[in-house]
Amino acid sequence: MPLRSTLPVPTLDLDPDAPHVADFYRYGDLLSDDESAALRRLRAFLATEVAPVVEQAWDAAEFPMQLVKGFAGLDLAGAAYTDPPASRVFLGFLHAEIARIDPSVNSFYGVHTGLAMGSIHACGTPEQRERWLPAMARMEQIGAFGLTEPHGGSDVAGGMETTAQRVTSRANGDEWILDGEKRWIGNATFADLVVIWAKDTDPDADGAVRGFVVPGGTPGMTVEKIEGKQALRIVQNADIVLDQVRVPESHRLSGGRGTFADAGAVLQRTRANACWGAVGTQMAAYELALSYATQREQFGRPIAGFQMMQDLLVTMLGNVTASLGMAVRCAQLIDDGHGSDAHSALAKEFCASRMRETVSLSRQLVGGNGIVLSNGIARYFADAEALFSFEGTREMNTLIVGKAVTGHSAFVR
Description:
Butyryl-CoA Dehydrogenase, subunit A, domain 2; about 15% strand; single chain; globular
């Protein structure tokens, strides 16, 4: 009998009707019956369609495109933009559920439903919303979000190099010519629509930053997948080069203020979603560690019975519980109209920091077996490093909160 069969394999409970052991304070009880039913349908899909393919997809750094049809069948992609919209608490749990199975798949979903659809909803005109959002809600068209640049991450607001020049011709009317580069753009290799943010070159525009919906395959837009990633490998991040890309005036998101504040408003809401991704990742790390500890025997008994192992598990569970509590309250504040950028920033900073510790402790408990992909935790351990940095680094989020609590800006200009 091969040795592999004698080793414990940590697993997640994929029963869609079973409460998560990581939700120790039962925050899931806050959901309505309809919301709980929708999450059970999502869990069933994640268990049968997503969980079986993510390990191989992560190893191959490929996105399993067959999942798009399954997500579409859940009819949840447009839930944030209905009238009335779904609650932020429900939407948060949705992201946590997906991230619990795979953080990369949650990133794909968040880019499409949060960043891309959110940009069009927040900054588009009523006509633009009607033109693009219904098809995106049905996931017939997949979106991407082009903000970050090779030379501009945290400083992209003030240092954006991608430009938009307005031109007029008899043949085409008002158009915009986009030039520049974008980096780390998720979904870009297969996106049907890419929201590109660019600085207006008109001297009278005073450096205004405008959003444009650029269809995939538009002449002059080159998309190249970023290879060699060691985190979120399923996400198809890409470099985008824009060389004299022409888009009509009708593709400019003209329903906003025409400043970087438009992009900032979208990021505020998706930053709150990012904390839920950190929660789901922690939930998985804790559950895998608990599963392993109850199976793995050393010195004649399961390691779950040793004080040091219990200390690790309780620390992980405390991190998950505190993060989930903060995520829930942040979502409630947004629902009630009291949520601020500082609330989202603190939630993202705290949850991502606790996540980093939790996945590390989980890997520590599983020992050397924790670096093997088939044991699960290695994937979450690696993915957590990307989640820790995106949607605002820890340092940038502390500056946002620091300004809110002190009244003094420490941002470098």
